[in-house]
Amino acid sequence: MPSIVSIEQVRKTYATGLTALHAVDLRIEEGEILALLGPNGAGKTTLISMTCGISSITSGRITVGGHDVARDFRAARRMIGLVPQELTIEIFEKVIDTVRFTRGLFGMPPDEDYIRRLLTRLSLWEKRDARIRELSGGMKRRVLIAKALAHQPRVLFLDEPTAGVDVDLRRDMWEMIDELRGDGTTVVLTTHYIEEAEAIADRIGVINRGRILLVEEKETLMRRMGRKQLTIELAEPLGAVPAELASYNLELGDEGRELVYAYDKAAERTGIASLLAGLTAAGIRISDLRTAQDTLEDIFVHLVRAEDREAEPEAADPEARAAEQAEVYP
């Protein structure tokens, strides 16, 4: 089955000469939730805006449902719902009118029952006749989501949808995303709340400096790159790691009261047994042991820092960030 979104060798270069995206390849499968993670200025919003036909493509090709976003813009855009970062919304309109208008804008026939169900799902039905300027910031965010879903798109892009919203809306939004997946809608989201991506996404994509570092099934990524860490609490503090234990790459912490050992839990031998034996042979007494596993955030930070260390000096973050923030959603 072909991917519902296909991004092939896509490049974005601005008039200043800044390249915001470098030959990006990405396939998004129908019905999945893909979380696209990256620091500010990494290219997330640029990639979304080009996929939605808002920003031009310097080179490469993007298709949505088989429709080229450049040559067949209307058909491609009709399949897409977009919730942007900014609250770009007409504040003098009534809630129900702006949602109806958006549905009609995409050529969809009136469907009052669908509009009612959509507004009810987003806790907006009681506010349907309120003007948007009368709503709280969280309610305005809900209206943006309603507008994005008004024409029943097959692909929903959520660009930092929970930035600056309250806990209740954040929880409601993730519940709604899970329902949309159940309906077969494809969801692509960017978020700074990496623990939420870890909880809800099927696949994780990491982008930095305009390059896709990886796209992988979440569970596979966690198994492949997630480390486990053994923290050994010592009965007496150490001034340094004993020379005979140097091969274990131990870190001394908590003013010498802890030794930290990182290991691969999938390895045939973790080295823990021999380490504990080595500690006993060195006369080091242990008071307690505890283990912890890397989170998705730990993996993300490791990937981005490693890529930053290898990046060319001229790939300046501030300029890339300014270019990305200049993208405007209509």
From TrEMBL:
This is ABC transporter ATP-binding protein. One of its GO terms (molecular function) is ATP hydrolysis activity. Residues 5-234 form the ABC transporter domain. PANTHER family: ABC TRANSPORTER ATP-BINDING PROTEIN. Residues 308-330 are annotated as: Disordered. SUPFAM superfamilies: P-loop containing nucleoside triphosphate hydrolases. Gene3D superfamilies: P-loop containing nucleotide triphosphate hydrolases. Pfam families: ABC_tran. Keywords: ATP-binding, Nucleotide-binding, Transport. InterPro entries: AAA+_ATPase, ABC_transporter-like_ATP-bd, ABC_transporter-like_CS, ABC_transporter_ATP-binding, P-loop_NTPase.
